[in-house]
Each structure stands twice: as C-alpha cells, then as structure tokens.
C-alpha cells in the first residue's frame, strides 16, 4: 500500500470522531513491537516482508541490540473500513518493569489500549500492572492473544487442547479486570451512599449520562460489567501470531462461514466461541460439545484450519497440499517464497494474505475503542482535580472547562488545553528541517533539463570533433564545460555543507514534548500558559486581569509561565513531520518547550485551567549510583548532561548530595545501564565512571529478642545494649547534659541548660509501619492541610480525602491496640522524616496541649485551639518537630533514614533565662525522678515499656508564662539539636537493626533449568515464596524475594546459567528487618563455640552497615570491637 501522504493525515486530524489514540501494553517480550510492525507495514511505511524483523518503533541502537523496548514512541497510521477512514495515533510502550514509567506517560495520552498476552506465558506480573494502569486512567482495553504459533510448534498442543488453553488465558485476564471492577464498584457504592445522606434534604437527583461503561448503579449485582470483560463474541479479542503476520477475530470467521454454510452470521458470532458444536446431520448448531465429546465449533471451523496449514507448510512441507490450500483460499504466493529454504517464509506469505493481523487488529480498534469525543465526565473530573481539592470547589470558570473537554472542539473560541506527559530528545537529523526531502516535481524537471542539455552539448562536441579532428574544441565549448563543472562543484559543496552542518549542531539536544491536545486548536508560534503541578487556578484568576491572554505580559503568578510553541510535529516513529496547526483530539510533538517544562506540564490559553493530576507511576526509583567524570575538567559537562537526562527521562532522578556527589537514581539495573549510555553518548559526551550501586538501608529498633544467636533463652541483651549506650555517653563530651535511665528514657539538656527533653524510642508494630509506608501521599496531604490550618487559611477538602484520612486514623487506632499504645493515635505529634515518613513522634508530655494532627476531621474546634497557642510555644513546638525530622532522616547506625520507630517525648522543660544554679538544681531533681521511674519500670514484667508511660503523672514543667525573650534566637536552635540528639540516644538505647530493601522476583523457567535457578537464588540469599506450574505448559512460575543488596548481576547470572531460558523480573516490594544484630558480639559459651571469638563472618548486618559507613566516610569500628572482645573474654575467663 502506498505511503499515506502527510496531507491525508492532516485532513484526518480534523475529524475527532474518527481518531483513535491508543497504546500497546503488555508484559515484557509478549510481542508489542512486533505487532506494531505489522500495523506499520499495513500503511506501507515498512515492507511487509520485514514486518516483525525490523521492530521499526525500537529506533534506539540499544533497543535493537538488547531486543527490548526502552522508550515509548508514537506513530500515526490510517485505516479504512467500509466508507470510514480512521486516523490511529499508536504508541508502543516498553514491557520491562524498569521502564514502567514510560507506560504511565503513554497511557495518559490515550483513550484505549491494546493489551497483548503471550499465548504460552499467559497473564504475567506486568500484564496485571498494565491492566491496572489502564483502569486507573479510565481507558478502554482490547485484547490480542499473541504467539499462537508457539502453541502449535513449541508446545505441540492439539487444536482441542489449544482451545482449552486459550479459554484459560481469557479467564485469567478477566479475573484481573474483575478484581479491579469489584473494588471500584464497592468503593463507589460507599461514596454514593454517603453522598445520598448529604443530599437527601436537597432533593437533587443526579442525572448521569447513560453511555458510561462503568455504571454508577447501586451495587455489584446491578452494575453493568458486560462491556468490561474480554470475550471473542464481544469483538474485543483477536487471536494472532504477529511474527507470522496473521491474526483474526471471530467476526471474520463468522462472516466466512455464514456465506459458506448458510447460517446467519449473528448466530455464528454467538456460538463460535463457546461450548457449541455442529451437528452435521441436522445441520444445526447444538450446545454442550464438552459433555457430548464433540469438537467445539471454534476448534472445528477455526483452529483446525490453522493447525493443518502449519502442519502442511512447516512440519510436513507437503508441497501439493500447500498448493491446494493456496488456490482454494484464492491467494497468490510468489515463487521465491515457496522455494525459500525456511518454511516460515512461505507460511507468513500465505498467512499474512489470508488473515492479515493488521486488518483484524485495526478493525477491532476502530470499532471498539472510544474516540476522543467519547471522553467521560468521570475521567475529565479526575484529570482536573488535584490532590485534596474537589472538583466542585474549583472556581466556576474552571468547572466550565469541563464542557470544553467533553466537546473536544477545534473552533477558534475553544480554549486550548494540552497535556505534556514527557519530554524526549531527538537527533538533529530527525528534525524535518534538517532532513533531506525528496525532490519536488519542479526540481526533478529542472535536473532533467540540465542533464539533457549536457547530453546534447556532449553530442554536439563529439560531432564537431569528428568533423574537424585537427582543430580541437573551440573555446566556446570549453567554457561551457567549465561552467558545468562549476555548477556541479557548487552543488557538491552545498551538499557537503548540508551534510556537515548537523555535526556542528549536534552539541545541542532537541527536546520534543510528547503531548495530547484535549481542546482547541494549537498553531505554530502560539503563546500559551505553562501550568506547573502546583498551580492554583483560583489564585491565577484572581491575580490576572480579566480576559488576560498568554500573549500579553504576565504578572508574577506562582507556578505559571508563558511559552510559545516553536514547532509542532506529527510523530512518525523515527521521523517527525512539521505541522502548522493541530486540532483537538490528537497526539503531537511540540518543540521549544525545554525552558519551561521539566518532565510534564499542562498547557492552556486559559488561566482557569487546572494542572492535570500527576501521572500514576508504578516504578519507584531505587538503584542509586554516584557519577563522576573521568577527567575532572569535564565536571561542567557532566552537570549539564545530568540535567538533560533528568528532563528526558520520566523516571530517572538526579540529585546532588550534601557531600557534593552527583547521584543518579534509576528504577533498576537495565534502566541504569540505559541512563549511563545516554549520558555518555548523548547528553554529556564525556567519559564517566559510575560507582557501584548505592544500596539503600533503613534503621530501626526492635523489641528485645528472647533468644540468643544459638537459640538459647536470653534476658539480658537489652540491658547490654543500654550498658553500651551508657558507656558511650559517659565517654562523650555531652555527658553532663545527658542522662539515660535503664528503661531507655533519655534526658538531654541544651548546652545552655535552659531546656531539656526526655525521649523514649520504641518499635512500631510492623502493620503500622506498612500502613504508614503505603499512606505517604495521604499523610502528605494531611500535613498540607494542617499547615494551612496553622496559618489560619481555610481549605476546601474533598469528602473523599476527608474520608480517607478518617479511615487512615481508624486503621491506626485498630492496629495500635494494647496498654502501651493507649490514646497514642490522638497524641501523634508528627510523622517523619520529611513530615510524611514511616516514623511517629508522640506527645506524651502531660499537660501539654497542642493542635491535633487530626484537626481537619473536627472542623472549627481545631482552629480555635490553634489560635489559643501563644507564638512562643508554637515556635518551640516547631523546634521539637524539626529535631525529630532530623533524627529520623539519618540514624546513628550508618546515617540512613529510620523506619518504624516511635519516639515519645515524655518530658519537656523550658526555662526562660533562669539563673544557672537554680537550673542545675532543677535538672538534678528531674534526673532523680527519672531514675526512680526507671526502677519502678524495671521491676515490671517487661523492661521496655515505652509508651505505656503515657498516662503517668504530670512531668511537664513548661513555663510559658516566663518572658519569651531569647527564644527566637538560640533556644529554638538548641532545642532542635537537643531533640535530635535525644532521639538518637533513645534509639541507641533499644536493640537496633538494619532493614534491607527487598525485591520480589518472578521467574519463569522450564523444568530442566529449575535447579539452576534455585542455585542462584540461594547463593544470593533469596527466599522462594511459592512455585507453581503454568497449566498446559512445562513452565514453572517461581516467586521469590531477594535483597536489593544482592541483586546486582542477578538477572544476568540467571540468564547465563539457564542459557537464556529464564529471565527474572525484579520489582521493589518492601523493607525487611535483617534479624541479626550488627552490634552483636558473642557473650555465652555456646556462642563462642558456634561462632568463634571474632564472630564477624556470620554477621551480615554488620557487613552491610560497615560498607555503608565506609562509603559515607564515617568511622568504622572494626578495631574497637576486636579489643572489646578481648577484654570481655578475659573478664569471662577470670
Ligand atoms: N513465536 C512467536 N514469537 C514472537 C511473536 N511475536 C513476537 N515474537 C518474538 O518475541 C520476542 C519479543 O518481541 P517484541 O515485539 O520485541 O516484544 P515486546 O513486547 O515489544 O518487548 P518489550 O518491548 O521489550 O517489552 C521477539 O523475539 C519476537 O520475535 C509471535 O507471534 N510468535
Ligand atoms: Mg517492544
């Protein structure tokens, strides 16, 4: 088919009803790019013989070499069905976990998705992830079950077995969507009931458009889920083998057989997939094929044909039969294909004519996926409501924009709304202005004329030479020749100039924004507002004059700037085409935004437009490396290169640590490799060296263990730890201000003795820690709300957020049960580090009232309370929180963040400019009291009873009535330091542990290599969680957890050891406490026997800790431990 001309595509862009924006999603290696190749070939962009081999959309060199997609890329295709012509903006996405952020950027711009599933492997972890992502973005999926040829040739299934296998796969996929659907319906029902209660007296009946797939009906029973599931008879499933170029939906076969057998197509459509069979005698289709042992229709009419074709062409190479089939199907096969030594060539020549996969898939896409006009209200509201803000609290003008979304109009009056989901770089060569264009007709004619002239002159010259051989050419012809030569050199020069130009310009990277236009029409050179994620339309509207446009000069509005669209591009895989304007509903590339847009942004001509909600990122960047240039003079280039890389990758993070190190954080090993290659070859163009991956750890405390390292009962370990802290403290300079009591309560005074704090640390229950971890977003929102309340601003929080906060609180209350946690939730003072981390500060100071963190739940009351606080206490309250934040940000073991630790502040004395001697008397009395308490505590059953002390008699000696002089100066600062130190000492007074980051790892392996996989897992401290056999195949699915610290080179090792038959997918899953104590030294006879005197070989935690300390340039205590052991040994032997 001819290459679609640009004009045709431009014409199609104007008709949004016939536009489909879609992406291809799947697990890694399930054949997305191969399928995309087939679709691209149908438009004549690549030859159909190369489809599947070229992987056209994998345009990067490393993508071709490694055979995996790393960046999502888009291409515009057209398709005609009947009298309708469609424009398809297709985005191919990567399937490897490391690049799942690229999937997020693709999904946001689309209305639909093709989900590809490998017929052998079935639903894999990433399949579930992409289905979830599609669901979260409210886009509609269709299914392609790919690689059916593997069922025939590799697994050697019979057609009947294959049918059962395919049914199973469909069930698996539908099970995933079913779970998503159920949870959503239940959630909505709860919300609706709540809404109803609120609105009962208003008597307002909501009218909703009827065409929503996800109905807002009351419950599961009533919810319409028929459109949700994949089913061949719904027309949303295609069976394919992309590599052999064939694919079909059952509509096609229903059509063929309805003509052949005279059965109605609708009847066939309903019965072709399912438990039906053909009763040849009665010429009727009957139910119950399985029970009666008959061949189901699908097997008889569909699969058998394909199976016998494969059998004839590939297995038996039966020439006669092939010819018969070819002629009966009315196909033409070129003789070079039928003579080819590889039977697959002939097979794909036949199949791609008989059942072209592109036809099947494109027809399904055009029919089943929604157009940009079908965008639902629900999706629009979701895109427009950021964070805690609810849609109906947005300014009126903003709410009106919803209509613009739904209209998707391209009139002059329609506001322009564009979302940029990522920035990517292109080579200069790929830019249309630098590319050599094909010659125009005039140019060709001119050239032809020139050539003809030359030829005529040459002939004429020959003639004169022949006529007059002695008198050599007259000067005239010489001149002409010289002229011609001149022209050609000039041309040559111009050509070479053109060639060399890009090289000069190569230094500069061209950033193109990957974007979708939701409303209005964008023109080249137009000026628009660029709205950052924190932009507030209410603020913008109030600050800007009415009717203000981006072309006018813009006053200072936070998170808003102006930019002009320097160039607009049509994205055509590797190429870009220049466009003058683009109407609503299309995916496009925009050049010239790199100054205003970092990774993503919302662009609009209306200041009322809210920023879109942030992308749902599935991958968490976890692998960090420090990067250095080989030559130090290259530092500025590296800095610039890292900045570019940060902009060009949705997931990579670039940081400069306090130590001055440049750190790159990536999602995994493969992603890391790609980022380093990019830095070397594109962005920095210098030699760089990367450190070994920096492995993150967390520090925590645990309850005292009951047994020792050789599983003997143990009662003293805890005390040993405290003993050590005491020793350390007494050695330190601060010993006169520090007091640690045996129960673990640490009291520390500021150097000027004006204030002192008493802090106790305790481990949080594991469930609480996980809850805190999974609720970071919510805690952050809570913190923002509290901040606003503290500043006296009112915030309109959506009921959904409020409900989520209340739910979170209730969950915490439920998990924090027992005497020690009595009232703890009410007394939460702060979360940390960074105010939303998984550690808690408790207010256990008797008599100290402060606004609760939950004040947004009881509106009004909280604000009044906040008002009652004097600025004096509020200031110092902040110091306590800051001290806690600092302490949780880096712990005493190896300066890694803390996790799952609860600090409770039990006493807090502030004296304002009191005389020194009085103060020390005061201190004494406190210490006295504290140790008395400690004794009382010791005599109770469990020595570590930290938070149980909440209800003890008052110990607060705050004196707010004193003059607040000096408190703004040093006291608040000193209090921060004292609080931080106190927390650290309190932490050290408990048994400390490291926490390691863990990956979950799913490996598919055949039975032969299973043993080797286990070998590698075992060597790297992996733990197998479960193993199951994939039904119908000889593949095993192994699920394991593996410490991140042991994971480098893991994928490679597995691949090598199994000759590429198994490849793992590593995804960050959770943090796990390493059970061994890094400070442990053998103390009992048995332990000496078991571990020897040094006992450092067995201590993995110590190794990790020392490695981190060494990397950070901290003191590593190896020598000291050795001496301590000796001394203790002596002591023991005495
Ligand atoms: N047997 C068979 N192999 C296929 C088929 N389709 C693709 N493959 C092979 O599967 C491998 C992966 O194909 P890709 O198209 O690169 O897979 P992908 O889903 O794009 O992979 P990522 O982009 O890395 O996630 C290639 O070796 C293909 O040749 C098919 O229909 N049958
Ligand atoms: Mg791919």
Question: Sheet bearing the most strands, described?
Answer: 8 strands, antiparallel
Distance between the termini: 95 Å
Q: Would you count the extended β strands for me?
A: 35
What Rg, in angstroms, do the CA atoms define?
Answer: 36 Å
Distinct ligands = guanosine-5'-triphosphate, magnesium ion
Unreliable spans? 201-219, 484-506, 729-734, 860-871, 913-968, 1119-1134
Give structural notes:
By secondary structure, the chain is an alpha+beta fold. Helices cover 41% and strands 19% of the residues. The protein is built from 34 helices and 35 strands. The strands form seven sheets. An eight-stranded antiparallel β-sheet has the order 14-13-19-10-11-18-15-16. The protein has a seven-stranded mixed β-sheet with strand order 2-3-1-4-5-6-7, with helices on both faces. Helix 2 (32-41) packs across helix 14, helix 8 (250-261) packs across helix 9 and helix 30 (1010-1019) runs antiparallel to helix 31. The radius of gyration is 36 Å and the shape is globular. The termini are far apart. The relative contact order is 0.07. Mean pLDDT is 78; it is low at 201-219, 484-506, 729-734, 860-871, 913-968 and 1119-1134. Guanosine-5'-triphosphate (GTP) is lined by residues 26, 28-34, 55, 67-69, 94-96, 146-147, 149-150, 241-243. One of its GO terms (molecular function) is GTP binding. Residues 925-938 have a biased composition (Basic and acidic residues).
